[in-house]
From TrEMBL:
Signal sequence residues: none
Name of the protein: Aminotransferase class I/classII large domain-containing protein
Coiled coil, from the record: none
Pfam families reported for this sequence: Aminotran_1_2
InterPro entries in the cross-refs: Aminotransferase_I/II_large, PyrdxlP-dep_Trfase, PyrdxlP-dep_Trfase_major, PyrdxlP-dep_Trfase_small
Taxonomic superkingdom: Eukaryota
UniProt xrefs under CDD domains: AAT_like (cd00609)
Residue ranges of domain Aminotransferase class I/classII large in the record: 42-426
Species whose genome carries this gene: Aspergillus nanangensis
Length: 435
């Protein structure tokens, strides 16, 4: 990844190698292989729902972090191959390429999800839903869902045609895709009332909300002098927690939200291991994806290795004492450089909060009339992601789906020392662009 050696790369959304716990993983792997009761199942085909000890540890860990209305039982958890791989499985089991009308994507969106939806037959039916600091535009989404239903009626799209009825699966009419906390790329965190409104809308229109809850654990205070309290608990419920308790709980045994979690940003993307949470029925249905029925949940060996990190408390300590402080430090460095070099040029941070920060990115708005596509990044040997990369692919609506006035800066990949230099170079590019 990256460009050439002298380029400062604020584009790449990967963790810096220094943030990967290779020593602990080497020990975990050795421990797993030394134990006959671990190594045999770890190296075998596994259960469809995934490595059982890890399901249990994840359930306890999520209960402690999110503090939902009741402890999370392991049967709500399914081990996955990470958020991306699991999104494909969700679409295989719970959508039909015709009966499922649209995929509604909170925009700007995680761009690599678009191909996964395309692969499942939704090309041309991905729709951007705008958001701002008060969250997703629910009024816009409601009207769009009403329009989509009217179109489906006119086209007599009333029955599931391509997927045979299966007791473990339900076909939803709509998919809503969101990253509700520290979104990639916008960094917007949806407020609680907005989360509740979205769950209500999903229930009303028979939609499954797929949430990439992949950045939730990386949170800190923007100001080191006023630490986040508490630092190791979520400050908002996930949408899946809301669906579990709102108005007496889910509408039916399937529910309307699936939380897509991942160890990519916590252990290492190469582990290709994550988890999904939903109602027990939804989690079980997911585990019945054809590819999991043939051989068990993905990443069995990785799952068994990661599981070794839980009983001793190592994983929690690593999050609290290493990962969060290191990311917080990187974030503050980048922000301080932005305040020094970019803000005086008219660059603004439309979604940054003074109370809580997190995730991997900073989303910055360029001073008008400058467009990201005009920036001569090569000239200053700096790379950032131009805003239009995060358009919902195939949606031509320029009111909701144009981001050329923005850039995304990542503080996870570059060496910490280079973050300030990268911003200084970007400021030079912006200054030249404004001339
Ligand atoms: C919103 C979002 N979802 C999913 C992923 C990828 O997750 P995984 O590595 O678990 O497939 C990323 C990685 O950048 C992301 O930002």
């Amino acid at each position: 990844m990256g460009t050439d050696d002298d380029t400062v790369d604020l584009f790449c959304g990967w963790p810096n190698p220094a943030l990967l716990p290779s020593g602990a993983l080497a020990e975990a792997f050795a421990a797993a292989m030394a134990s006959p009761t671990v190594r045999a199942p770890a190296l075998q085909y596994g259960p469809d729902e995934g490595y059982q000890p890890l399901r249990e540890h994840i359930a306890q860990w999520l209960t402690s972090f999110y503090q939902p209305c009741a402890p999370i039982p392991a049967d709500r958890i399914c081990i996955t191959g990470g958020a991306s791989q699991n999104l494909a499985c969700v679409l295989q089991v719970f959508t039909d390429p015709v009966y499922t009308r649209n995929v509604w994507m909170v925009a700007p969106t995680y761009h690599l999800a678009c191909r996964i939806f395309d692969d499942a037959g939704f090309a041309g039916r991905l729709k951007a839903v705008p958001q701002d600091t008060s969250g997703v535009d629910l009024r816009f989404l409601r009207q769009s869902l009403l329009d989509a239903e009217e179109k489906a009626r006119a086209e007599h799209n009333c029955d599931v045609i391509y997927k045979p009825p299966r007791p473990w699966a339900k076909i939803y009419k709509h998919i809503i895709y969101a990253t509700p906390t520290f979104s990639n790329p916008s960094t917007v965190t949806m407020p609680r009332s907005n989360r509740e409104g979205l769950v209500q809308l999903a229930r009303e229109f028979d939609a499954l909300i797929v949430c990439d809850d992949v950045y939730d654990f990386l949170q800190w205070s923007p100001e080191p002098t006023t630490p986040l309290t508490p630092e190791n608990k979520a400050h908002l419920p996930r949408l899946v927690d809301i669906d579990r308790s709102l108005d007496g709980g889910p509408k039916d045994e399937w529910g309307n939200v699936l939380s897509n979690g991942s160890f990519s940003k916590l252990i290492g993307p190469g582990a290709r291991t994550g988890w999904a949470e939903g109602t027990a029925k939804l989690a079980y249905g997911l585990s019945q994806t054809g590819s999991s029925r043939s051989g068990g949940a993905p990443s069995q060996l990785s799952a068994a290795m990661i599981d070794q990190l839980f009983p001793s408390g190592w994983f929690q300590r690593y999050l609290d004492e290493v990962l969060r402080p290191q990311y917080a430090e990187r974030y503050r460095r980048l922000m301080s450089a932005i305040r020094e070099h970019l803000v005086p040029l008219g660059v603004t941070l439309p979604f940054s909060s003074s109370e809580i920060a997190g995730g991997y990115f900073v989303w910055a708005q360029l001073p008008a009339p400058l467009r990201a596509s005009d920036l001569d990044l090569l000239d200053q040997q700096v790379n950032v992601a131009r805003g239009d990369l995060f358009r919902v692919q195939g949606d031509a609506d320029t009111r909701t789906n144009t981001f050329d006035g923005y850039v995304r800066l990542c503080f996870a990949w570059e060496s910490e020392e280079n973050l300030t230099e990268g911003v200084r170079r970007l400021a030079e590019v912006v200054r030249n662009g404004l001339k």
